[in-house]
Amino acid sequence: MKKQSLIIDQLSSFKISNVQKVIPLYDKKAPNSKDINATDIFLNETEDFQFITTVHTPDLTVFLPEKSLSTGIAVVICPGGAYVGLSIDNEGYDIAKKLNEKGIAGFVLKYRLPKAEYVNNKQIVPLQDAQRAIQLIRENAKKWGINPNKIGIAGSSAGGHLASTAGTHFHKEYIDNPLKTSLRPDFMILNYPVISMADSLTHVVSRYSLIGEGLAPKELNLIVMDRKTSVQKLVNLPIDLEKIKEFSNELQVSPNTPPTFITHSVDDNSVKVENSILFIAALQKNKVPVESFFYVSGGHGYGTDNPTSDVDWIDSCVTWVLKMF
Prior knowledge:
By secondary structure, the protein is an alpha/beta fold. It is built from 10 helices and 12 strands. It has an 8-stranded mixed β-sheet, with helices on both faces. It has a 4-stranded antiparallel β-sheet with strand order 1-3-4-7. The N and C termini lie far apart (44 Å).
């Protein structure tokens, strides 16, 4: 794995052919960011796969469909990466391109990671960026040909946790909102999502990265880099029980939670399928519309294309979204 430091313009120039624009999330300094002069860092795993490990400048990459196809629907897309990085190609740009084919705008969110060396109040920083993305798109909807009442949020893996947090915590405003713009997404798309922070269900690295305290940042980074032992080293470290409850999103569902499409592989050994099952049960209990799509196999991290199946979840998902409106 070769480490490279790239700026977003370099990435855009050779990675994304049909992007209209990359826009900064904030006009000024992002809330809770520390005063550190640094650039975003990318790990280039293959020619077609970028993994962002540090985000200092959160932004949105805009994918607009052809005007003749436009439905007025938009989706904020949150890539996963265990809250230690962003798998921005297969869980970001690829999803946006698929949505564009059906007339749906995609806004790929490059959100800040909860790393204490770069941010204060780390557990709310990703949510701040997700709320700001919804706010920014809703307030500028006309410019992009979007219906402000048709803005959803999608996320894969830890990005699914962020998306479901945006969909269950929207009543708490973590950003300045002078126009009182609604921060509630109109629907959610959750792809093999981390949902729970409970010991028996959670993805341990995602949980400790988001709400864990005590380890020095460099110490945590060293543990996470060793994938074979990271779970064993992190699982028994103490976590504040109130934070576990607050960020276990199966416990935060209400009748006002947005309609949800959720997909998962039964054989996922990274994020247990029970995360999705519990969330579905909570949605049903609260009479929130939910559609599910389960694969028998496929594991974790496949993005839009599960190599074990001839059927793509995103096709069923798009059908569901279009029927809703």
